[in-house]
Design a protein that fits this description.
This protein is mostly helical. It is 61% helix and 0% strand. The chain is elongated, with a radius of gyration of 18 Å.
Amino acid sequence: MPWPVRDHAAVGLPASFELPVVGHLDALADLSAGAAYLEWRRYRHAAALHTDLVLAEEDRDERAVDAYAQCAARIATALSVSQYVAERLLDNAVALRDRLPRVFGTAPGSVDI
């Protein structure tokens, strides 16, 4: 379902832009939190693809286009981005998963500061 036709109220967004100033500020804060959550989910899915497609082939992969490049190509196709952008996304996802597992395992908004 395209994002513009989804139920905005279901995710806590105001149905219109006819709001007082504080309403706009609250909406901006909610949108930032939502964007952080969606980005976290994007990294989690990229890392899961890496686990499924790359780690399984890592020790025996001697192809000219290795499993990492193929995984990034699938991401590039799905997101309509370049191979370079997809490889950076995959790099970041793997770094978060492997180097910062406590951060990676904690969903945005689930920690009170």
